[in-house]
Amino acid sequence: MNDAVDRSPIRPEEWDEARRYALVIEWSEEDGVYLATAPDLPGVVTDGPTRAEAADMGEEAIAVWLSSLRDDGRPIPAPRFTGLPDHPRAAAPLVDARRSA
pTM for the full model? Predict the structure, then answer.
């Protein structure tokens, strides 16, 4: 196993690949930050002081995680998490939705 840390910049295609994976962002009262978790990649959890920063950190963590798997010759799991089917808003279609002025 290679213990060296790859400090090369994340390439555009790696960002694109990382953004195919879902992120769940939740507020943590205990930590006082937003946590970003990748359901398809166990162990990929990061945080940020805002939702946006947690999302940015999550995308970066996914890109780095996938790169490390690839560097170690390990298989890349396919993105599978597609949403929350049991969530009440997931099933309710937007009918005659209008933007407010």
Answer: 0.74
